[in-house]
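Hi Q.,

Before the meeting this afternoon, I wanted you to have the cytidine-5'-monophosphate prediction in hand. No need to reply - just skim if you have a minute. The sequence and ligand are here:
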Amino acid sequence: MAYTRLPSPDDVPDQPHKMYLASTAVAMSEMFKIIVCAYMIYSAHPLQKRSLRKLYNNLYTEIILQWRETAKLAIPASLYLVQNNLQYLALSLLDAATFQVTYQLKILTTALFSVLILNRTLRRIKWIALAILTVGIALVQLPPEANIFTFGAFNTQDSAAVPSDLDDDPHGSLAKRAPGVAPENTLSGFVTVLIACILSGLAGVYFEKILKAPPTPPPQQYTPLSQTDKESASPSPISYLDENPPPHADLVPKEDDALPPTAGIWIRNIQMSLFSFVLGVVFIVFLKDGKAVIRNGFFQYYTPLTWVVIGMQAGGGLIVALVVKYADNILKGFATSISIILSSLVSIWLFEFKVTTTFVIGSSMVIYASYLYGL
Ligand code: C5P
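Predicted structure with the ligand bound:
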């Protein structure tokens, strides 16, 4: 993502970058997720029994008929939407490194919400492990020239090369900022990061709660009576039902069409992505980049690499969902911390990233914290 956000050689000085719009890329990654999840539901049926009609029935039943369940996903979708946008705001108030370091507080807010909302108990040793993880991953993300004791006055030029997954600067304001100059709005920046951390924890834990809730029973199944049933049975509510099929009877899945038990996670993700897509297009693409879209189109300056980034964002989001389902949000904090270390190592040859003592100490703390938490 950092690579695709680098200024293009075709750029004219003092004119906006010839850069794809981040808002449309985010919307497209939601669309990607919907397509992938639909395919996963389709292929969750046994090979010989797959059909588009069955997929349609599953989607119709789960998303439209069970609209109360769908509505629940509007909450994490909106929380994530606000959180994602607060990250952009925080990045305009703080330099990228300060943002990256302070944003790690989300590990602790996530643990707090896991205790409050999911009634999890965390023993003291786990809190200690989480605190070590938070400090460790913060150290890992300090730029090489940063002096810990002049916190907030980092050189943004280098630190911007190792962005968060949502680090983004469509208008190049970060790149234009003079190196070594601390942004003025440090306090509002910190408050913004704090709110983003709270929303990150809340959205993640709320999604986990929905994902791990026992499935609600499907709508009453409509099974037409056979001729022998009709002849033998005395008039009953069922035969009455048979004469007067309920509305949507043809759409309520027969036993064979029922949603495979493993497909719940894909339905939840489609439900959430539908909200994210609609809210994202209406509020972010239209309100933030509406003029640019009218001027140069929705897909302006897209390159094949843009699609690769979109695909990775979508895949990353779905993996987050799998981690939350089969592990939990706290373990996700460990997983992403280790992924930051691994991507820093890849940055050694991609972005000339230099391994510093702080990086080594931070990485060791992350690894030690993972071990301690695992105990
Ligand atoms: O910063 P944080 O760890 O909270 O970010 C998690 C990211 O995972 C968010 O950007 C969110 O959009 C994404 N996500 C997703 N699908 C899910 C859950 C989270 O794309 N089911």
